[in-house]
Design brief:
The protein is of the alpha/beta class and 314 residues long. 42% of the residues lie in helices and 18% in strands. The chain is built from ten helices and twelve strands. Helix 5 (146-165) links the parallel strand 5 (114-120) and strand 6. Helix 4 packs parallel to helix 5 (146-165) and helix 8 (246-256) packs across helix 10 (297-313).
Length: 314
């Protein structure tokens, strides 16, 4: 099988590529990545001899069509994904996350190539902090930021292309990922770096916003099950039911580093900051036989702190 992975030099994409090589060595992988600030060819150093790498943009219609035509499967991670950046430059997010996805979908239809589209739980908006509910396939889309709105549009596009043009696609919406090679802008690596270098870590608002965490390898395993067992046109939600407040994550890191509570720097909240994400992965468990293998994120935090501390020292 020949597989094209878009965004394969980013955090989740590079972990998907490396884990695929470990578990499915028969697959021939081409990575397409624009190597913006959030992607790095260094993320693929350990597998660079085992893949083909193309630096390019999913907005490039000609390049996308050429690469899709040579593939049996496309796994589409490429996206602009930082909420703060989406507030500053919304147009870029729609150009990449919608028009780029349009290019991928059109080429997959033209060449009858199987597609799996990676999305986020943020398309559902948020839940009240005291809610016992979780996002399911019955939850209406209600995006809060330009980023989540652009991802929601991409999801709807893929579904429409399945129905209108016979696109052979599945979609997955995943909760917050953690693991190696995450960009320094994200909560966990940013907190570790801030505490180590400045002795303080910023926390938006009260820090009581809740996120649902999943290890990136569990996400990767779910994607492969969706590709191999998923029904065309179906959507699968991946989450480990591991819900933590942002403050509990930051405090866990602070305690591991032996710093006082005063190391937390509460800052003005972000506009449109979602209160709570919670994902119900029941359909993925039932239809795909998917279950997360990793333990709770708080229990894995010492390993994450050690990992990113070593990255900082390089």
């Amino acid at each position: 099988m020949k597989m094209l992975v878009t965004g394969g030099a980013g955090f989740i994409g590079s972990n998907f590529v490396t884990r695929t090589i470990e578990t499915k060595p028969h697959i021939e992988i081409t990575v397409l990545d624009a190597l913006t600030y959030a992607g790095s060819s260094n993320n693929l150093d350990q597998v660079k001899e085992q893949i083909s790498f193309v630096q390019g943009d999913i907005r490039n219609t000609t390049l996308v069509d050429e690469l899709v035509r040579a593939s049996d499967l496309v796994v589409h991670f490429a996206a602009e994904s930082h909420n703060d950046n989406s507030l500053k430059n919304p147009a870029l997010f729609f150009e990449t996350n919608v028009m780029g996805t349009l290019n991928i979908a059109n080429s997959c239809v033209t060449h009858d190539v199987r597609l799996h589209h990676i999305s986020t739980d943020e398309v559902f908006g948020d839940l009240p902090l005291d809610s016992l509910e979780a996002f399911s396939l019955d939850t209406a889309y209600n995006p809060s930021s330009p980023y989540s709105a652009s991802k929601a549009a991409g999801d709807h596009l893929v579904r429409a292309w399945v129905r209108s043009f016979g696109l052979r696609a599945t979609i997955s919406n995943c909760s917050n990922n953690y693991g190696p090679r995450q960009h320094w802008e994200k909560l966990i690596p940013n907190t570790i770096r801030s505490l180590l270098r400045e002795g303080k870590a910023p926390v938006y608002g009260s820090g009581l916003n809740v996120r649902d965490w999943i290890h990136v390898d569990d996400h990767t395993d779910g994607v492969w099950l969706a590709v191999e067992r998923g029904a065309i046109g179906s959507t699968y939600l991946f989450g480990a039911r591991d819900r933590q407040t942002n403050l509990s994550i930051v405090n866990s890191i602070r305690e591991i580093l032996g710093l006082p509570e005063s190391a937390i720097d509460f800052v003005a909240d972000r506009p449109g900051h979602d209160l709570k994400y919670a994902v119900d992965p029941s359909l993925a468990e039932k239809d795909l036989g998917w279950f997360p293998k990793h333990t709770l994120i708080i229990e894995m935090m010492p390993e994450l702190v050690d990992l990113y501390r070593k990255d900082l020292s390089r």
